[in-house]
Amino acid sequence: MSAAEQLPVLLGTAWLLPLASFVLIVFFGPRMGKHGIYAGYVATAAILLGCVLSLYGLFGVWISENGVYDLAAEHQEHAEEHDEPDEGDEARATRGQVIRAQQPDAAEAEDDLPPDSKRFHFDTSEHEGKSGTVKAFTGDWYTLGKFGSLQVTIGYYIDSLTVLMFCMVTFIATCIHFYAIGYMHDELHDITDHEVTLSDGHHLHRHGRFPRFFQYLSLFCFSMLGLVIAGNIAMVFVFWELVGICSYFLIGFYIERKSASNAANKAFIVNRIGDFGMIIGLMALFGSLGTFSFGNWFDDQGAEHPGIFSQVRPGEQEYPYRLRTPDGMVKAAAAGEIAKGVEPTKEQVDIWRRDFSKPNGYGRQAYWLLIVAGLGIFCGCVGKSAQFPLHVWLPDAMEGPTPVSALVHSATMVAAGVYLVGRFYPVFTPEVLLVIAIVGCITLFLAATIAITAVDIKRVLAYSTVSQLGYMMLALGVGGWVAGMFHLVTHAFFKSLLFMCSGSVIHATHTNDMTKMGGLLKKMPWTGYTMLAGCLAIIGAGVPFSIGLSGHYSKDAILAQALWFQIKNPLYGWPFFLVASGGAALTAFYMFRLWFMTFVGQPRDHHVYEHAHESPRIMYLPLVVLAGFAIFVGGSLPFGGDYQGLAVQGLLEQARPDGTVAESNGRLIPTLHYPSEKDPKVHRDVHKQAELVAFGTALAGLLLAAAIYGLQLINPNEVRNYFRPIYQFLVRKWYFDELYQALFVEPTLFVSRRVAEFDKKVIDRFIDALARWARIVALLDDVIDRYIVDGFVNWFAQWTYSAGLQMRRLQTGNLRQYIVFIVVGTVGLFVLMSFYAFANATH
Amino acid sequence: MNVLAQPVGVSHFLIVGAIMFVTGAVCMATKRNALGVLMGIELVLNGANVNFVAFGSELLNPDGIGLDGQLIALFVIVLAAAEAAVALAIALNFYNNHSTIDVDRADELKG
Amino acid sequence: MDINWHSFFFMAFAIFACGFALAVVISSNIVHMAFYLVLSLGATAGLFFLAGADFVGSMQLLIYVGGTLVLLIFGVMLTAQSPFISMKTKGGEWILAAIVGGSLLAILLQATLNIKEWQAGEKPLPDRAPVTASRLGMGLLGARVDELDKPAAARAGMSGYLLPFEIVSVHLLVVLIGAAYLARPKKRIVPRGFEQESQS
After folding, report:
1. How far is CA A545 from CA A548, A653, A683, A689, A732, in A?
2. pTM here?
3. The domain containing residue A838 runs over which residues?
């Protein structure tokens, strides 16, 4: 079987295994073993199996079919600046290297390209992918419904990014499942929750919820993997929401704590705000492009229809994979003309597309529609990845148990936003990319500054996560697709490692507060040294121009791209590089502040120090494994025969979307130039400069942290007092919570209070008055009924009775009187008859 | 003598009949003895008989034989006899039960 | 002196009948009343003879006077109270009865005297032999010999008085049986209020 047939089966099975585990635990959880401990084993087994399948899919299927991408050779080639197209695949295969087709870069007739842009030839070598030249397999597993030309399906889009993400997510999830079995063993028996106080003053006493935790974890894994494998944007949205609801469940795991339930609500609601923008983007896309699918799709008759990527970056000779306003959007903009009867032929559509000069030209309107679609999708990512201004939920999400923070809120769910930006990259215009870069830039600076004042160990890591996500967005925003996604992968490893280490510390000391810790290195060596590895990874420690930890490579890539962007756009490109470098310094500072405060120095709280102990093996072994990955995942595999040279960057290059390596310019902002990520200059001059800057800033931050917290040369309290206003501002998280409270919460509460008042004072009064009137009317009716109606009836009866009594007196029983009456009657009768006779007779 | 010379018409008979009828009615109305009431009934029926005979006689219809009047009067007489028998039986019953023949005592139907 | 003996005897009989009827009313002794009634009814029989109704006059004397009134007198004797207390009606009742009776008499007289055909002398009496009973009997059976000059069609609906005759006969039988039953001897109960004097 070819990769196209094997991979969907493998990855599909890996995707559905956590769902099976979820269903099993839902129905049988509490009965699985003593207090449900087997639920944990079932979930771990499912995800472990999924990991095995994904790794097989990567090593056994993908690489065996597509080979390993040669990064070194590519660097060399680009240094030579050749023009010829490459030889066929077979020639390269003899050297054990396969290069995929070159990225085309042809200028559009009406664009003004910078004079020094390179032209690469378009290679029409064989490819199996359904969209462009990137190797990707698309297909549909199941059609949910057909509405005219729209097909809503459960489908897949598998390229090397998908396979890489699957491996990463399942591997980290497996480590965390093992870790969680140890961490959550408290939930195997009844718990007294000291953070919840009931109304009678006691603490809450409840049963353990061990199976429920793994049920939610399994559901989350299923949702995340479904999001990664999704082949159309509607399916992405469904799993987007699923991941959000799993996050809600997991954050609110300790549901009886008010802080936890508030945090869960906040996370979900803030996510929803982002999803509102995403729906707008979805509608813009669907309304104009008529399809949800990423890649090309086939209908019942077997005809091929273009997917979103093909419509936006068509492979035609004239526009080889350049971003072009798709036909659908141009037709939507010119709908008035079409309604008047103008035929939308290909030439006519092209004429409309080029109509960019006037402010209401059809080409410009269509371009705006494309921008709206891109910004809409990005809105969803802002919510999901906790970018400014929707970053407020992530620090509060630390209320959940630490395995949740490690899996969901560092490595996977928050990365889903970045993943979607990366997946949707072909659709974003340069203007949208600029917005993404700005948002990322603001976020990374904002979060880094708050992190330097936080004292809760998980809060520091949460803000660090927000800041690193800002880095990823910045990277993607300045054109560094591989840089951003690379940082995503490395960040997943070292951030989950850091969270798990902090979980281990919390488990040992029963407190989150760093001001109570100190000097724990002797008592918890495994945790301490693995955390040191993680901290070094995150700051990008390494020796310049040679080796380094994983974070070194990814952060270098980001800084290099930012610097190149600045060089290309001297007018407004400078903030990005500056902020990124400053952020690197801050990152080093707060991470080592955390490490020094926790593990080094005198214990601040002896009670805590006495009780601290190393975690059980099931908890620290995953830490070791992840530390190994955090150190080595940035480099390439130095051994392994066919797999030699395998690197994350290589896999990402194989997944790079068509047309994204080329230079491009903004059309609404003509001075916006986006450099190519594989431009040779990036790898020569710029990269060197960026490495030096990264090293310098990281070292500066580390030394400062060591000075204050490690060697205790400077007293942090004095520093805090000196910078008191700034410190207040940072410790209060830039007053964002207060700002949102005043901007959104208070007006809503105000309106609701007014409405409640209206309801109570006006409506209730009115109803009460009506009721009172009804009562009065009822009383009146009662009076009428009793005295008038009943009175009348009674009077009538009384009168009848008295009349009867009166008439009774006629009945004297006296015979003679009766005779008299007879005679009187006779007389009367005669009188009447005589009158009658007189009236009629002719006398 | 003028009075005696005039022929007798139906009206004279009718007058007699009327007088007897009214007398009988008054007798019925005023007598307390049940048998007195009975006598009043006989008088009334008699007065009616006189009327019947007068109307059927040749004074009114010179050609006829006065059959209708006579026969009706005959029936009335028979019925009067029957009725007198029954009334007497009632009166005797009353007398046996109450030991008095005073109709004023028969007021048990008083309402 | 030209006396119409028919009228003379009519007057005599009329005065007797009315006079004795009035005596019945005025008298308070029940035996006197019975006697006066006999005389009144006898005078009425005479009136019948004068009206040409021989048959009815005979029957009146036979049945009425000879039968009914004898029965009445028996009743008087059987219900005699000792002593023969006379029950007097009150004066007010006399007045009321007089008014009522008077008004009835006035109406009857007025009606009588206002109809022309009934006045005297309108139709002269025929001079012929009195009607025999055989003709009455045939009329009783249905052969109306008094209306021979009426056409047969007009005569068809006229019937005799046979059916009423039979009915009356049966009726009489029933009445007599009933009366006999009613008047059967029963145990005499102690009378209530026997001591009470009934005063008028």
Report:
1. 9, 21, 12, 11, 40
2. 0.64
3. 812-843
